[in-house]
Write a structure and sequence with these properties.
The complex is a heterodimer of chains A (213) and B (230). Chain A has 213 residues and is an alpha+beta fold. Chain A folds into two domains: 61 residues, no CATH class; 112 residues, Macroglobulin (MG2) domain (Immunoglobulin-like, Sandwich), CATH 2.60.40.1930. In chain A, 31% of the residues lie in helices and 26% in strands. In chain A, the strands form two sheets. Chain A has a five-stranded antiparallel beta sheet, with no helix packed on it. A four-stranded antiparallel beta sheet of chain A has the order 5-4-8-9, with no helix packed on it. Chain A is rod-shaped, with a radius of gyration of 36 Å. Chain A starts with 11 loop residues before the first helix and ends with a strand. Chain B has one domain. Helices cover 78% and strands 0% of the residues of chain B. Chain B is built from nine helices and no strands. The chains are: A alpha+beta (213), B mainly alpha (230). Chains A and B meet through helix 2 of A and helix 1, helix 3, helix 7, helix 8 and helix 9 of B.
């Protein structure tokens, strides 16, 4: 298609009517200019094509990107916590082992012991079997160390914030402490719990075990 | 009440933190379903009412936990109700998913008209076509009974404050305040999810409705199975 015209102050006066009349919006435009001194005309052509590219191509691309980015964000926000809560993500990440692999105590069979700072800390929970949503008696025995103030137990789930659930213990014998508490049930079906026994001014010991629902 | 105030603050913060993890996982699908149900209409008021209903239920449960001074008595007495609500929530999300994907024919749940006479159809049609957002308040009231670990933990604290209270009324009020604080803490996360899922700001929604439909169906089935096993 050959068109001729005089160069005016703006290139759009020449090109816009031609483009509008002959080119669809989704078509590419190739313009060949025959001019006695091309150096005078090149910057004008460049600016016209650049404007068209910016107004249509980039804008459309950015709009699409924005829509897909939002969709992706919604999916991430909605799905990620569900996936994390189910432990699926955790299981495929070697750095973050599954809660079951952390179990270091079979509380259903009897008391669990752990050595800590030259002391032996023993945890037992009654009645057996240890069930969620029941009143439970927690018993902590601390042996091998100096006399300690009453420890306390924080109950939680590995990798999941269940809120503060503390069992206060009171001394019943020299090195034996007891308290009442409840392990709640997680509707996700996960049943691995951590009992963190804190010995004030000494440190903490973690017992990880399964409860029965 | 002074001993309850710091504990209320603790559970306000707890509600806020678990809101962005646990609650999005549990209540997120329901909130997303409600948002999609609104089809781009102004979702703020319905979501506020849904959350208000949920908090009222929490506060009442907290009050009774404080009054009884026992977590286990309260939860054992509402166990069947919670099981039913979990199944109901699953059915709700499942049907909304099917309806939104256009895969069920018992009425245009998300449309303007519905001539079906079944109870479910009428209920869902009322929910979706309701001109008043007030319908979301009873939904929140009911779904506030959904079983949830952090809610149980807050109820344990409510029961403990009730045990320490001087009288029945003080026990009721102190338990109620803790659950009220906890519930309010969970609101920002769920409002954010509701806002993101309302889709009013997305131009092309067809694809996300389809993806959302499939997710809702899967979550609905999961809820129903959990409810049966609970």
């Amino acid at each position: 298609m050959l068109h001729s015209g005089r160069l005016s102050s703006t290139t759009s006066e020449i090109f816009d009517p031609i483009i509008k009349a002959n080119v669809r919006s989704d078509q590419k435009v190739h313009i060949r200019i025959a001019w006695s001194n091309p150096d005078l005309y090149k910057p004008l052509i460049r600016s016209t094509l650049w404007d068209k590219f910016m107004n249509q191509g980039v804008k459309r691309m950015l709009d699409r990107f924005r829509i897909y980015a939002w969709k992706f964000l919604v999916l991430i926000v909605v799905c990620l916590p569900m996936v994390v809560n189910q432990g699926a993500l955790r299981e495929v990440m070697a750095a973050d082992p599954s809660p079951e692999s952390l179990i270091n105590c079979d509380i259903q069979q009897g008391p669990c012991r752990k050595e800590f700072s030259g002391m032996t800390v023993t945890l037992d929970i009654h009645p057996k079997p240890v069930k969620a949503m029941k009143d439970l008696k927690f018993e902590v025995t601390v042996s091998g160390g100096k006399g300690t103030t009453a420890p306390y137990i924080d109950l939680g789930m590995p990798g999941m914030n269940m809120g503060p659930n503390r069992v206060e213990l009171r001394r019943v014998k020299d090195n034996v402490f007891e308290g009442q508490g409840i392990i709640v049930r997680c509707p996700s079906g996960r049943r691995t719990w951590i009992a963190t026994v804190t010995l004030p001014e000494v440190g903490k010991v973690e017992f990880v075990f399964d409860v029965i629902y | 009440m002074s001993s309850t105030e710091p504990l209320s603050l603790v559970f306000l913060v707890t509600g806020f933190t678990v809101g962005f993890g646990h609650c999005i996982g549990m209540c997120g699908p329901i909130v997303v379903s409600l948002s999609l149900n609104l089809k781009g209409k102004n979702a703020l008021l319905p979501h506020l009412l849904y959350n208000a209903g949920r908090i009222i239920t929490y506060a009442i449960l907290g009050g009774f936990a404080g009054l009884l001074g026992s977590f286990t008595i309260l939860t054992s007495s509402i166990l069947s109700l919670q099981k039913g609500v979990l199944i109901f929530a699953g059915v709700l999300v499942l049907l909304m998913g099917f309806a939104m994907g256009g895969w069920i024919s018992f009425g245009r749940i998300f449309g303007d008209g519905d001539s079906s006479s079944s109870v479910f159809s009428k209920w869902f049609h009322r929910l979706s076509a309701a001109r008043s957002p007030m319908v979301y308040l009873p939904v929140g009231l009911l779904l506030g009974f959904l079983p949830c670990g952090p809610v149980y933990t807050a109820l344990i604290a409510s029961a403990r404050t009730g045990m320490d209270a001087a009288g029945a009324l003080q026990g009721f009020l102190s338990g109620m305040v803790i659950m009220l604080a906890f519930g309010m803490g969970t609101v920002p996360a769920l409002l954010l999810v509701g806002r993101l899922a309302s889709l009013g700001w997305i131009k092309s929604r067809g694809m996300i409705y389809k993806i959302g439909s499939v997710l809702m169906i899967l979550v609905g089935i999961y809820f129903i199975i959990q409810g049966i096993q609970y």
